[in-house]
Design brief:
alpha/beta; Rossmann fold; 2 domains; 6-stranded parallel beta sheet; 15 strands; 27% strand; globular; binds NADP nicotinamide-adenine-dinucleotide phosphate
């Protein structure tokens, strides 16, 4: 590639801040010219994006900045930012060189300039696994499952574990880690296809389609006649309220996410919080970025599990940058089966 080559760079841009459910039309595609070179002294890295990750937290970034969020909002008119896998094309940063493969925060565009202030890039050292896994199993969602299950849930062998949104990027791994640990695991998901995956591919002991259940309290009591020791919370709202009375004494609830609330202007109230006292439950929220220092340790554990076939991972791959808005929006109606990602270039 000649120095100073200029390319037309396709980008996905947020048009304006979003209220309610996001729509494909909240985003648009445009092109901008880009010189394939980083300025000297900038400390920046220029990357070609290969895979982009669609993650529920991105909905919060589509909201006008407000006090009660821990994410920076996207800037309307600028490319959407999100996790991705990319190849370094040019670098003015001593930690990265041309040809390196990386994962971390990049732009929803073909090429991105990642400046030093944003550098949260991880160099990819292991390429004998699918590269796309670095958007999921070997990236942020995988780390979330690992930290959430081992650190926040404090599991014990034989514990009963309930995982909601169980077939998704995080949930499918939580269930498999819990099974490997010797727990009894039940998952819920929103379709028959997903329930089949939970039972037949990921090895959950039981699974149910929460959309078909009229009385969630009764459903949970049916699947957990002896109560729930650990709830890995991905959805919030009515599900959390239904789980609380079925929790066991000294149960743990890892509050990973509450996707059922992300598009509501006002979050639903929870009625059964008194159970936290009567049952001495520890309910703890966490954010994976606080634990990225554990990533090397996670790789040491998870890579052998993948190679030995002890852990499997299902991905839902949309093809082409143009398909990214629909893929992202689809998370909020359960359109994705497994980890949702977008493949935008095969130039690995
Ligand atoms: P995912 O499960 O791959 O995709 C989202 C899934 O959520 C959908 O497929 C859908 O599955 C379910 N869903 C959507 N709307 C719902 C609703 N109203 N009620 C119930 N379920 C609904 O997503 P993920 O990346 O694994 O994320 C799972 C959760 O973890 C999210 O809450 C996310 O925000 C959170 N998270 C937290 C951290 C952290 O650091 N704390 C990091 C990553 C992710 P169904 O078909 O089953 O409904």
């Amino acid at each position: 590639m000649a120095a100073m080559e200029e390319v037309s760079n396709k980008q996905i841009v947020l048009k304006d801040y979003v209220t309610g459910y996001p729509k494909e039309s909240d985003m648009e595609i445009r092109t901008r010219n880009l010189k394939l070179e980083v300025p000297q002294g900038s400390n920046a890295v220029l990357v070609k994006n290969l895979y982009l990750s669609c993650d529920p937290y991105m909905r919060a970034c589509m909201t006008k900045p407000h006090d009660d969020t821990y994410f920076d909002s996207f800037t309307p008119g600028s490319p959407i930012a999100g996790y991705g896998v990319a190849k370094v094309v040019d670098s003015d940063n001593p930690n990265f060189k041309k040809g390196d493969l990386v994962w971390g925060i990049t732009g929803w565009e073909e090429y991105s300039i990642i400046t030093s202030t944003q550098l949260g890039l991880f160099k990819i050292e292991h390429t004998d696994v699918p590269l796309s896994y670095y958007t999921g199993l070997l990236g942020m969602p995988g780390m979330t499952a690992y930290v959430g299950f081992y650190d926040v849930c404090s599991p014990k062998k034989g514990d009963t574990v309930y995982v909601s949104a169980a077939s998704g990027a995080v949930g499918q791994l939580v269930g498999q880690l819990a099974k490997l640990f010797g727990c009894y695991v039940v998952g819920s998901a929103g379709s028959k296809q997903k329930v089949d995956l939970l039972k037949n591919k990921f090895g959950f002991d039981e699974a149910f389609n929460y959309k078909e259940e009229q009385d969630l309290d009764a459903t949970l009591k049916r699947y957990f006649p002896n109560g729930i020791d650990i709830y890995f919370e991905n959805v919030g709202g009515k599900m959390l309220d239904a789980v609380l009375p079925t929790m066991n004494l000294h149960g743990r609830i890892a509050v990973c996410g509450m996707i059922s609330q992300y598009n509501l202007e006002k979050h639903e109230g929870i009625h059964n919080l008194f159970c936290l006292i009567s049952k001495r439950i520890r309910m703890e929220g966490f954010i994976v970025v606080d634990s990225y220092h554990l990533y090397p340790k996670y790789l040491e554990i998870i890579l052998p599990c993948i190679k030995e076939g002890k852990v499997t991972y299902v991905e839902d791959v949309a093809v082409g940058l143009e398909s990214a808005p629909a893929a992202l929006v689809g998370l909020f109606s359960g359109h994705n089966v497994g980890k949702q990602l977008v493949a935008i270039s095969h130039d690995e």
